[in-house]
Amino acid sequence: MKLEIINRVGSSIVDLLISVAMPLVIFKNIGFNINISYLYCGVLYITLLVLLPIITKGYTIGKYLFNLKIYSKDSTSVSPIQILYREVAKLMYTIPLLGLILVLFSFYLINTTPNNQGIHDTFANTKVIKL
């Protein structure tokens, strides 16, 4: 397995921990209503994975920690619409069973394509580069 996929998975895990897992655990332990907790995590997820890369021109917290950056396929700065397309395309990974197959296929593509593009990167015409 190439280092590229390990860095990208690590980056995604950090982003999901910060935006979903940790807040849910904290809210559960302090007694928040679970529906309000899910709403908050949804807003935090959108903020961290859509708005933050738009503001920082390609970084999420996880990508920053793993020294990765999202670029347009032609190596220019990523546009806000590309970030939005990329995150919308990732919704396909949440489809039960099919999502797992798509994630595995995306890992395969990241390891074998010249630009290390997953399905969501191909859809949004983006790539992730190790700096």
Helix content: 55-70%
The succession of helices and strands, N to C, reads HHHEHHHE
Spans of 5+ residues with little confidence (pLDDT < 50)? Answer: none
Shape: globular
Strand order of the largest sheet: 1-2
Number of distinct helices: 6
Pfam families: RDD
Subcellular location: Cell membrane
Membrane topology: Multi-pass membrane protein
Keywords: Cell membrane, Membrane, Transmembrane, Transmembrane helix
Report what the structure shows.
The chain has 131 residues and is mainly alpha-helical. Helix 1 (3-30) packs antiparallel against helix 2. It has one domain (1-130). A two-stranded antiparallel sheet has the order 1-2. The model has no long low-confidence stretch (mean pLDDT 91). The longest helix is centred in the first third of the chain and has 28 residues, at 3-30. It has helices at residues 3-30, 34-56, 61-65, 80-89, 98-112, 119-124; strands at 68-72, 126-130.
Write the layout of secondary structure elements.
Layout: H1 3-30, H2 34-56, H3 61-65, E1 68-72, H4 80-89, H5 98-112, H6 119-124, E2 126-130
Antiparallel strand pairs: 1-2
Helix pairs in contact: 1-2, 2-4
